[in-house]
Amino acid sequence: MKARIGILFFILSASSSLAAGNEFPQCLAGLQEQAREARVAPWIVDEVVPALEPQARVLELDRKQPEFVQTFAGYLNARVTQARVDKGRALYQRHREFLDQLQRQYGIPGQYLVAFWGLETNFGSYLGTMPTLDSLATLACDPRRSAFFTTEFIAALQLMERENLQPEQLRGSWAGAVGHTQFMPSSYLRYAVDGDGDGKVNLWQSERDAIASGANFLEQLGWTTGLRWGREVTLPAEFRFDTVGAGKERPLVEWARLGVRRSDGSPLPTAPVEASLLLPAGAAGPAFLVYANFEVIMRWNRSESYGLAVGYLADRIAGGGTLKRPPPTDQQPLSREKVKVVQRQLNELGFPAGPEDGIFGSGTRSALSAFQLARGLVADGYPDNDSLQRLGVSP
């Protein structure tokens, strides 16, 4: 109990929006002026906005970061379960005619739309319960990311007006994402479409609106029709791991020359397609060649693990099997503090890892790979025990 009180005290002290006094009402007054400038309906500006309340829980979740960086096995196995695959297949069949129609219209195969739906809200079983307007106002009044959330707050007001919604109908995640596909309000305004033909767009209550909106979103993000997200592959015994990583695209014919093959051992396709090689669990885990559509998936969520989970779940929903080489489950997650030490050591040794923020992203992975190559280690960019010890970091 004392620890929770301490967390709340920190949050209340750190945020100008929730500090004692009139600062939150003053912030709301500023948001009202911006809403008027955006030509939001006067009744919303004058009646709805002043009644909003700060949400301490929202800032607690915004400040909270997991202590440990999850392993790829932990991430994937928690999200692509057999139960989720089975339900995804059943929903794919239930909506098959509609999904085929959407594919003809937008070029997005139905299994991807169902996969996004499954990962975002477990097929609509949990849409979020936080009051969207209050949450966004709280975040807009907090200096950390005020500009971004102010834009989303105004968009939520415009959405409320456009779709004739009441404030209590706008509920979702603590960060303001709403509906079956968890669109932020600005994305809702820009990309959501009427999929069920009732003349309205409701991502909370209409599965067809949500699925069609996902298709429109992906098309607008640049989805390439007829191209997969990527595929699992196998690597030869002697492989140049310095070729691994996002941004190191090569034509499929070049990957084939390096000995890369499909996961079943057959040759890669000969299509003129660029691909990057990802090893999310290092050389001990699965290898994936990812194509341009993988980058589109990541524009929905900037996480490689998320993108791989979407692609893998989509393949499973479409009838594909499990990974030929599943990620090892005995790998241990690194704490964020340990990742910061790794980043600091790499930077000091002349291998630029970027900000020492405790996030093991592509920049840190690339720096670690360069360090491993220079030290004669397997340069897969994965922080195994040997690499950590060479960096002077205890495993």
UniProtKB/TrEMBL annotation:
Q: Where is the signal peptide?
A: 1-19
Outline the extent of the Peptidoglycan binding-like domain. 336-391
Protein name, UniProt field: Lytic murein transglycosylase
Decide whether keyword Signal is in the record.
Answer: yes
Please name the source species.
Kineobactrum sediminis
Biological process, per Gene Ontology: peptidoglycan catabolic process
> Which Gene Ontology molecular function entries are recorded, alphabetically?
peptidoglycan lytic transglycosylase activity
List UniProt keywords, sorted A-Z.
Signal
Q: Which residues form the Transglycosylase SLT domain?
A: 24-315
